[in-house]
Write a structure and sequence with these properties.
Length: 238
């Protein structure tokens, strides 16, 4: 658990606070897309607080270089190269009903908070996405933090909890399984920080363009920059 807590980070934007976690010691991190949203578009840079030995903290910046609005995830490279404590990635497909899980993050800004629960449904289908449903407490500030199993492996990204007219639904908190973004994580590992940050990034849909970036997004078609000003290069969006 100590390693998992050390790998969990706070993510600060102009809109508020969320959580995230480091998955590669050079500073590759994961959070929720809605954590880095600013006015409907993804931030390009956020402030991150990392936790050091002896209870010390350090604030640094991180570049958002890939995200997915529908699946609600975002990938970051921390500005300082590390090495950082990391979370090992598990296999969400192996989760079963009643497996014990833990949600890590900073609800209401309370860093290093852990809530314990069980898997209520390992494949809860909503709007075409199969979430990990759990009764582990997830509150504001937990979003983007990891859902881990009892061996300390990250299984998902905490993203939301359902509410009824009478309040929150205890057994209806949800995490996006990490296998949805495994290929993007692997690609970022292989390309490295500079290649990822230097690629074109659409702040609307979150698409990353590594080959011949353009002034429009090839994924959603949105104009992302002024070709008269920047030589027709997509660099960070509107």
């Amino acid at each position: 658990m100590e390693t998992a807590l050390a790998a969990t980070i706070d993510v600060h934007t102009q809109e508020g606070l969320g959580s995230g976690f480091v998955v590669e010691q050079r500073g590759l991190a994961v959070t929720a897309r809605h954590v880095v949203d600013e006015g409907g578009r993804s931030a390009r840079e956020v402030t991150v607080r990392v936790f050091l030995a002896g209870g010390q903290t350090r604030d640094t910046t991180a570049a958002v270089f890939n995200s997915h609005r529908y699946l609600d995830y975002a990938l970051l490279w921390l500005a300082e190269p590390g090495p950082y404590p990391t979370l090992s990635l598990g296999n969400p497909g192996g989760l079963r009903h009643t497996d014990v899980v833990f949600a890590l993050g900073s609800p209401s800004g309370l860093s290093k908070t852990v809530s314990r629960g069980i898997v209520s449904n390992p494949r809860a289908a909503m709007q075409g996405i199969e979430y990990i449903q759990t009764d582990a407490a997830i509150s504001g500030g937990n979003s983007g933090g990891p859902l881990i199993d009892r061996t300390g492996h990250a299984m998902g990204i905490n993203v939301l909890g359902l509410r009824s007219e009478s309040g929150s639904v205890d057994a209806a908190h949800f995490a996006v399984p990490l296998d949805y973004l495994w290929s993007d994580i692997r690609s970022a590992w292989e390309r490295g920080r500079e290649a990822c940050i230097g690629a074109g990034y659409c702040r609307s849909c979150g698409h990353t363009e590594h080959t011949a970036p353009t002034w429009y997004c090839r994924a959603c078609g949105l104009k992302t920059s002024d070709p008269e000003l920047d030589g027709q290069q997509m660099r960070g969006g509107l």
